[in-house]
Amino acid sequence: xxxxxxxMPGLLSGLIAVARRDLLLAWKRPGxxxxxxxxxxxxxxxxxxxxxxxxxxxxxxxxxxLWVAALLAMLISLNSLFISDFDDGSLEQLLxxxxxxxxxxxxxxxSHWLTSGLPLVLVSPIVAITYRMxxxxxxxxxxxxxxxxxxxxxxxxxxxxxxxxxxxxxxxxSLLILPLSMPVLIIGANTVxxxxxxxxxxxxxxxxxxxxxxxxxxxxxxTAAALRISNE
Amino acid sequence: xxxxxSAENLTLFRGxxxxxxxxxxxxxxxxxxxxxxxxxxxxxxxMRAIVGMLDLEKGAVSxxxxxxxxxxxxxxxxxxxxxxxxxxxxxxxxxENLRFEAALRPQGSDGLETVLERLEISRxxxxxLRSLSAGQQRRVALxxxxxxxxxxxxxDEPFTNLDREGRALVMQLVKEHLDKGGMCVMAAHQxxxxxxxxxxxxxx
Lengths: 232, 204
Known about the structure:
The complex is a heterodimer of chains A (232) and B (204).
Chain A: H1 11-28, H2 30-51, H3 55-78, H4 83-87, H5 90-95, H6 101-130, H7 135-163, H8 170-196, H9 202-230
Chain B: E1 4-14, E2 17-28, E3 32-36, H1 43-50, E4 58-63, E5 66-67, H2 72-76, E6 79-82, H3 94-102, H4 112-118, H5 134-147, E7 152-156, H6 164-179, E8 183-187, E9 198-202
Parallel strand pairs in B: 3-8, 3-9, 6-7, 7-8
Antiparallel strand pairs in B: 1-2, 1-4, 4-5
Helix pairs in contact in B: 3-5
């Protein structure tokens, strides 16, 4: 019997398999998905209690609070991106599989976004109501959060890959990716504020989209390199 | 087609400590390479260096005459590595785990049922891996090996947690793999008896 490469799985099969497996795992352990979501909802609902319920103040601070809470919720969820795979040895199995590592990492990041970024986007309108945000601003909020969380998931995957070998790398992970995620926070929150003030805001959306495309094209390679370093 | 795995003068440092120096071997189709050495002598590190996870200080591993570093994907498509940790997800069932593995590398003609039957784990199919014993999880890792259609098997202490029948089964499977023209690298600290060409690397 001979061995050949004729039935080698295709390039994307690794990405799809990894994303599907992680979604299945998230389905079996819903707590990991719900934790950041609860955190987001809690911060957003506690804030009005602390600063007072006046309408002016809430409309003024709403975009900023929602965006900071979303950023922190993403950070919380990022920590576990590679940890369990590292601990049970399936990460090293992925490293020696014939699948290209950037695509494998991207598969994990896609499933991370679907289980942490997307739920935040979907919950945000409910939270935004408590800040008396009008409907058209809520749509802008959802658009900026969608683009922003995509960037944050991708940037975070680099940090998570770098810190996976160090136990308790949470603080380091935040330090590493906060500077890179500042533009997302600033542009995202300001775009929503502009929309709330009836000013033109499309530039912010474009800038966030450009940032997301940039991270999408570069982050998988950085993540792959970081994973190799962490597994030495 | 025959394959060849060779290593030339491998030297590995971890920090200031030299784990091994000047390790060379050449392994052909149908041969078994045993890495021998006491605990902490660097067997696992050597295996990780062979699969390309550790950067060597000196030397290179070649697959079919070409350095592995230049053809990582081809080389990884030709091997399965049963590491010290089984590398399977505890929350997924045996079948879910093996389906995932099947999407990663070339698969042989043996069906899942046949392989599970062979390893005597088919009745564990609906259970999450978490509820399996350590030895049973080892058998699932063996199933990953059997399902893949690759010439090179790397096994790090394959007898850990296995019962007497399990150990005999491993040797039987290795023998069949070698007879098919495969090759196997095995780290073991007990004597391995097999009716096949054996080479040894002894680590101090």
